## 1
Amino acid sequence: MNIVALSGAIELGLLYGLVALGVYLSFRVLDFPDLTADGSFPLGGAVAATLIVKGVSPVLATMIAVCAGALSGICTASLNVKFKILNLLASILTMIALYSINLRIMGQPNVSLLGESTILTPLQGWLQALPSWLGTPLVMLVIVGLAKLLLDWFFKTEIGLAMRATGANPDMARAQGINTDRMILLGMGLSNGLIALAGALFAQVNGFADVTMGVGTIVFGLAAVIVGETILSKRGIFWATLAALLGSVLYRLVVAIALNTQVFGLQSQDLNLVTAVLVALALILPNYRKLRWRSSR
Amino acid sequence: MKSPTLFRYGAVALLVGTIAVGCNATDSSQPSNLKSVSVTQIVEHPSLNAVRDGLKEELVLAGFDPDKTLNWQWESAQGNPPTATQIAQKFVGESPNVIVAISTPSAQSAAQASKQTPVIFSAVTDPINAKLVTQLEKPGGLITGVRDFAPADKHLDLIAKLVPKAKRVGVIYNAGESNSVSIVNFVKQSAPARKMTVVEATVSNSAEVATAAKSLVGRADVIYVPTDNTIVSALNSVLQVGIKNKLPVFSGDNESVEKGAIASLGFNYKDIGKQTGKMVVRVLKGEKPGEISVESPSQVELVVNPKAAQQMGVKIPDAMLKEAVKVVK
């Protein structure tokens, strides 16, 4: 693997770390299996790209994209808590609706940002001073690191604790006077806001938004969370969010290896198989560890 | 408690080791004196594969044999744009002499990643809208290529010739495919001059194609299927509606005529690949991509299917049968 491919994989892994954080929030904290991600990721890209092409400043465009993502999450959560639609089904409904909405927003299936100014443009001078393989991954590290620390802080606030209680034991949470419906709405909004931020950044860093770019986002997010947990055991929120980021970067490194035809004869055609094996292994290994632990006691 | 920790460190060590092996394997196995061409493709699909095969054939003809005298690499993103960006980054890092990008998202990824490496795109319908180039003639910069914009105006002429009473042209397409949207927009522009109107039926996946085709019965005089991956993969549903309701079905690609559409003036995708190959050879021999104009396919081939025409109540005149490059039996 060459340095450009390696730094590219780390950059993409960090960017998708925002997806992993979002999926961690919905899947692990709220215990809400949320497929909205496959729609909210391209939604973020669609909103940001369309606004940037129309001349809106990239920072404002990105912020609006995050709000759009949050709205989509709130939409899924409302279908679930207000209208009592099964959580998985509610998220599937939002996801398929978003496909059409994304097409409407962009007015075409693919919006190109090649040559447009993006959120990276103001940093251009600073980026050019660094080797090209280092600059963008560093920017991603800062953005994703900040998101992680903010999320860690949030989970320690009163609302954050209430949200964790909602996912852990809704009945107990309600008995403590927590409005669990509101917590699910807020948490799902936050989760999909993060995922839409990832979509908005993806479009700006890679030069295009495409309506198909959300395919498999949720599978990826789950893979990152589960693989991360296998490597870093759960020792509290700080480690759990770090594990999600680590899982995300590792996943992209594995893809980069799979793209390396000379190693193990793997090719890009095998990617879906590699993902499935990776996630299955990550799910099997902890059980295996538990068994070993029990028998060794 | 010891064994789980050991296990975890073992897993990490294994992963790090694999990545390290991955790093070494490519770096040491690249002979440096050969020219290199790296091809990235968004998905495996008969037309796109034909482009790749034609490209390879042309390179061999020009003395660049992938097995002996050329470093040839090919990767498919399996329909996933993030993977396309990773493929582009891998290629750019290896700095081959030319990157060939088949399809729009692959070309955009390569264009964004490349700082020095020439990029030749192929099978991109609208390179200006995709912002790959700002102009078709002498685009400047590092990028040029071959576009596959189907001559939909000629398709309308063909329909007018075979079905003179056709005034309402029903078009079925997936609104999520950029190529289709560009072509349908062009059909809408070309229709008024031929005293035709366009009736649209859009789908988002192949399961919806049958319903969309049925929705055109009574609303349209003919059905036109553009070069759209979703519709072409479910073409039989359209053909059945056409036969049952005597609603003539025309297509934008020649493969669909062989499956049962009445007629088409289509590209031969292998020829597009060969045309791309000629361009790649020019760059390998030292020309700058920015000075090579974006090309359109040099010819379209008329293919007709008399049996399908008869089933849908249309007669193909003898003159046209003689003119056709291929008559499907």
## 2
Amino acid sequence: MVGLVVISHSRVLADGVAELARAMGVGQAVVEPAGGDSEGGLGTSVELVEQAIEAAQRGDGVVLLADLGSSVLTAKMVVDEAAAEVRAGGGGGEVVLADAPLVEGAVAAASMAATGADLQTVVTAAESAYAHRKT
Amino acid sequence: MSGGPARPETLDAAMITAWIRHTAELVAADAERLTRLDAAIGDGDHGLNLDRGFTAAVAALPGEPDPPGRTLITAGRALVSKTGGASGPLYGTALRRAGKAFGDATEVDAALLGRALRAAVDGVQELGQAAEGDKTMVDALAPAAAAYETALAAGGDLPSCVRAAAEAAGKGAEATVPMTARKGRASYLGARSAGHLDPGAASTVLILRALADVVGEAAG
């Protein structure tokens, strides 16, 4: 199953989005939060992101969803490093950052991941969340 | 230059570690100003974050100097781990790209440093997707690399090229004052971001000034 990682500046926000996405993923989707800095304050921790990716990786790849600024930059940096590792012959599936709104993207990705869909299909589901208008 | 020591033609491992240490000193001394600049248009933690990041980078420096490239990669990694804000991945990428450009060289000559600076600019722009004029660190970093290349092409030695880069970074940072931010948290402010010096450009100046100081000191 494709795993998901929710990266937010806020630990509470990441935990909450992960909880919501898991519930919408009929309790089957693997959603790991990576919120806040290493001390629990607002910020982004590359270590927490890497730990969450490891925990979410089931071999079929991991989709990252990020909120703002350093969350996005950290995610992109980690994706580059993961790609370099895959090229170097390291194990584990691909790691991809979805260009999606955090909450809606996580819910859409979790719903799709729970069906056993492949990585690209999950990413596409996350990115389709922009099309769900609210007015 | 009679009687003085020879002007350095290369950066060695000791100068690279001195650069990281001196950057940490300048950032610590200016942390409050950087945070104040960031409070005006960002989330008000740039000085604090970067101080923590460079303190970690200094702590990660090897006791026995590694080759310059490896030292920069180590420092970059520590910076990313501890900074907590957008400047972590951005400066971390800059240091690591520069470190990779150095390769296994034990002595970095002026031409190699120029290529490393360019690699750092490319890395930052790839990651942050910012162009010159967006009111970011790129507005200090890109002119610094360009000025370095111009000075090198004109036959400048290492100290003069590094000095040209530091001066261009300073001018580039000043030029961010009237700009409207198109990246980062400041971009949410729109036109209200104009009239303030960009904190990322300001900290880039410190990093290049630290390099110029270290090379200048070696030049006597």
